[in-house]
Amino acid sequence: MSVLMAEISWVEYERRLREENAIVLVPVGAVEQHGPHMPLGTDAILAGEMSRRAAERVGGIVAPTLSYGYKSQPRTGGGDNFPGSTGLDGDNLSRLLCDVLAELGRTGATKLAVIDGHYENQFFLTEGSEQAIRRLRAQGIDNVQILKMRYPEEVKPETLDYLEQFYPNGYPGLDLEHGGIMETSIMLYLFPHLVNMDKVPSDPPADFPPYDLYPHAAADWVPPSGVLTPATKSSAEIGKLLVDEFVDLVTGALEATFRSSAADSKRLIP
Ligand code: ZN
Ligand code: MN
Q1: Ligand showing the shortest atom-to-Cα distance for residue 30
Q2: What is the H or E stretch that residue 61 is in?
Q3: Residue 150 Cα, ligand 2 centroid: separation in angstroms?
Q4: pLDDT recorded at residue 216
Q5: What pLDDT does 219 receive?
Q6: What pLDDT digit, counting tens, does each position of 158-176 carry?
Q7: Model confidence pLDDT, tens digit, residues 112-122
Q8: What spacing in Å lies between the alpha carbon of 43 and ligand 1's midpoint?
Q9: Which tens digit of pLDDT belongs to each residue from 9-47?
Q10: 255 C-alpha vs ligand 2 centroid, how far in Å?
Q11: Would you state the pLDDT for residue 84?
């Protein structure tokens, strides 16, 4: 039986909420360049896949991915000067997420999880989650809880120690890890047919000043390939390590937050 909401009937969906008090996960991504070697949908694809794997472990249901995200920024995603990088205004992303969460809550889900795959989304998803709780309360529904996290919310220190050897200039931090070794390795492990290792650029790591500029000064700041850290040492082996770690991270967060008996779920369906 599928964990994907789009692949089950309303009858089966309702049964899982009523009998199992299933967690409903909402993956959020972006349409954003990821260098010449990876697809524009990388963030959405990975948020969806991490959610699917976590849902299989906790008996959850994955709602359709919100595939567009907030605008790519030069220092974290290369910015808006790449054909195909297609961002939403922040208030639209907040409202989109608010509508989805509030509808899921109105029709019976009480355990909601927003799984973010795009760095720039984070505070607009916070706003959408806050607004959804406010809207549900105004409708008299006060038993909905929303967990929100980036699937790579944290990386274990020992994993960073291990990865250090693959970064010629040292680990640059998660915000510069755009189209770099971590994302490329994860894609190589999960979706190798979507990665073209022959096209991995050899740009040096990006060197940004400690501020942002508008309009974006991407032509000066961002490596022409759009990759912010060298990805040449990527491998499916590194990818497996990271996928296992991040699926554990998401699963652990869901279990810690929503661990409770299915028995109290009956009163939760309006
Ligand atoms: Zn990405
Ligand atoms: Mn991104």
Answers
A1: 2
A2: strand 61-62
A3: 11
A4: 85
A5: 67
A6: 999 999 999 877 787 777 7
A7: 999 999 999 99
A8: 5
A9: 999 999 999 999 999 999 999 999 999 999 999 999 999
A10: 26
A11: 97
Give residues with Cβ within 8 angstroms of 166, minimum separation 6: 181, 233, 234, 238
d(CA 245, CA 126): 24
Q: Residue 3 Cα, ligand 1 centroid: separation in angstroms? A: 24
d(CA 125, CA 91): 10
Give the CA angle between residues 101, 104, 109 to the nearest 5°. Answer: 115
Higher pLDDT, 270 or 136: 136
User: Residue for token digits 């054909």?
Assistant: 83
Q: How far apart are CA 89 and CA 87, in angstroms?
A: 7
Residues within 5 A (CB) of ion ligand 2: 30, 32, 43, 77, 118
Angle between the N-to-C axes of helices 181-190 and 236-258, in degrees from 0 to 180, rounded to the nearest 10: 90
- 204 CB contacts (<8 Å, ≥6 apart)? 169, 223, 230
| 232-263 tens-digit pLDDT | 999 999 999 999 999 999 999 999 999 865 44
Q: Name the residues annotated as catalytic.
A: 32, 34, 43, 118, 120, 178, 183
Q: Is the peptide bond before 83 cis (omega within 30 degrees of 0)?
A: no
Report the pLDDT value the prediction gives residue 203, as an integer from 0 to 100: 82
Q: Give every CB contact of residue 46 below 8 A, 6+ residues apart in sequence.
A: 29, 117, 151, 183, 186, 187, 190
Ligand found nearest the CA of 177? 1
The three-state secondary structure class of 191 is coil
Q: Compute the distance between CA of residue 100 and CA of residue 64 in angstroms, rounded to an integer.
A: 10
Distance CA 120, CA 80 (A): 12
Check if the beta carbon of residue 188 is closer than 8 Å to that of residue 236: yes
- Closest ligand to C-alpha of residue 180 is 1
* Maximal CA-CA distance, the chain: 59
